[in-house]
Amino acid sequence: MSAPSRYRVARIIGAVIGLAAVVWIVGETLRGDGGRPSQSPKEQLARAKSGEDYHRRVGLAPGMQPAVGTQVRTLQAYYALRAYAGAPPSIPHEVDAEMGRTQDCNICHERGGFVKRFNAYAPVTPHPTYENCLQCHALPGGAESFVANDWQSVRLPILGRPALPGNPPPIPHTLQLRTDCLSCHAGPAAVAEVRTSHPERLNCRQCHVPRMTDDVFVRTAQR
Ligand code: HEC
Ligand code: HEC
Ligand code: HEC
Ligand code: HEC
User: Fold this and answer.
1) What residue ranges do the domains of the chain occupy?
2) Cα–Cα distance between 89 and 136 in angstroms, integer?
3) Atom 5 of ligand 3 has which residue's CA nearest to it?
C-alpha cells in the first residue's frame, strides 16, 4: 500500500468512529432520562410510591411534590388520631375562633395541598359534603375531660394479604364513606404504607375486592 492510500484508510476509520460517537451521544440524549442509569425494581417501586410520576401525569404544580423536610404521614401517626380504625380522627392542629364558627375547613381539606403554617400537606377529606365538621372531629385539647376506662381498640386490619403472591391485596376495610379511594391512597398527604403505585387505574374495585374480618369483635378480659 502506498503512503497516501494508507492515510486515506486511516481518515475513513477516523470518520466512522467519530460518526458512531455522535450517534451514541444524540441517542443517549433523546432517550429522555438524561442518561440516568436504569433503576432496579426496588428503586422503581420507591419512585412509584413517592407519587412522582402520578403528579407529573395529572399535571399538579411542582409545589404539590412533597416539600423537602415535610413529614411523610405514617400509618402509626394515622392510627394515633383515631379511637379505632375507621373512627373520625381528632384535629391535630389549632382551629381559631373564626374557623370554628364558619367551619370552612374544606378550604384546605377538599383538594389538599401544602399548608405552610402547619408545614404539612392537608389530608383530603373523603366526604366534602358533610359540612358540620366539628360534629364528628374533636378539637385539640380536652383530654382532661376523659376518665380512665377499660376500652380496648378494635383489632387493626391486616395488610398485604393477596390470595397469591403478586395478586391485588383485598380491601381490609369497610367501603362505607370510602368510595373516593384516591382521597386516602394517593397524593402527598396519603399514608406512606398504603399509597398506591397505580393511582391512574381509576376503577379500583375491578381488581381489589373487600375482605373484612368475619370474626365478631369480642372485648378481651380486662388488663
Ligand atoms: C389552613 C389549612 C387548614 C384548615 C383551614 C384546616 N385544616 Fe385540618 N389539616 C390541615 C393540615 C395541613 C393537616 C395535616 C397536619 C399534620 O399532619 O400535622 C390537617 C389535619 C387535619 C386532620 C387529621 C386528619 C388525619 O387523618 O390525619 C383533621 C381531622 C382535620 N385537619 C380537620 C380539620 C377541621 C375539622 C377543620 C375546620 C375546623 C380544619 N381541619 C381546618 C390543614 C387545615
Ligand atoms: C358524620 C361525621 C363526620 C363529619 C360531619 C365529618 N367527618 Fe371527616 N371523618 C369522619 C370519619 C368517620 C372519618 C374516618 C374515615 C374513615 O376512616 O373511613 C373522617 C375522616 C376525615 C379526614 C381524614 C381522611 C384520611 O386521610 O383518612 C379528614 C381530613 C376529614 N375527615 C375532614 C373533614 C372535614 C373538613 C369535614 C367538614 C367539611 C368533615 N370531615 C366532616 C366523620 C365525619
Ligand atoms: C378514609 C381513607 C380511605 C379510603 C377512602 C379508602 N381507603 Fe383503603 N385503606 C385505608 C387505610 C388507612 C388502610 C390501612 C388499613 C386500615 O386501617 O383500614 C387501607 C388499606 C387498603 C388496602 C390494603 C393494602 C394492602 O397493602 O394490603 C387496599 C387494597 C385498599 N385500602 C383499597 C381501597 C379502595 C379500592 C378504596 C376505594 C373503594 C379505598 N381503599 C378507600 C384508607 C382508606
Ligand atoms: C388492574 C388491576 C388493579 C387495579 C384496577 C387497581 N389495582 Fe391496586 N393492586 C393491584 C395489584 C396486582 C397489586 C399488588 C402489587 C404488587 O404486589 O406489587 C396492587 C396493590 C395495591 C395496594 C398495595 C400497595 C401497592 O401499591 O403495592 C394498594 C393500596 C392498592 N393496590 C390500591 C389501589 C387503588 C386505590 C386503586 C384505584 C385507584 C387500585 N389499587 C387499582 C392491582 C390493581
Assistant:
1) 41-142+153-206
2) 8
3) 178
Q: To test the ligand 2 pocket, which listed residue (133, 134, 176, 191) has its Cβ within 8 A of the most ligand atoms?
A: 133
Residue having the nearest C-alpha atom to atom 23 of ligand 2: 125
CA distances to 10, 80, 153 from 223, rounded to whole Å, are: 89, 21, 13
pTM above 0.85, yes or no: no
Atom 6 of ligand 1, residue of closest alpha carbon: 105
Give the closest ligand to the alpha carbon of residue 172: 3
Tens-level pLDDT at each residue, the chain (223 residues) = 566 678 888 898 888 887 888 877 766 555 544 334 467 777 766 665 555 554 544 434 433 445 556 777 899 999 999 988 889 999 999 999 999 999 999 999 988 888 888 888 889 999 999 999 999 999 988 778 888 888 877 888 889 888 888 899 999 998 988 988 988 998 888 898 898 888 888 789 999 998 875 565 566 665 4
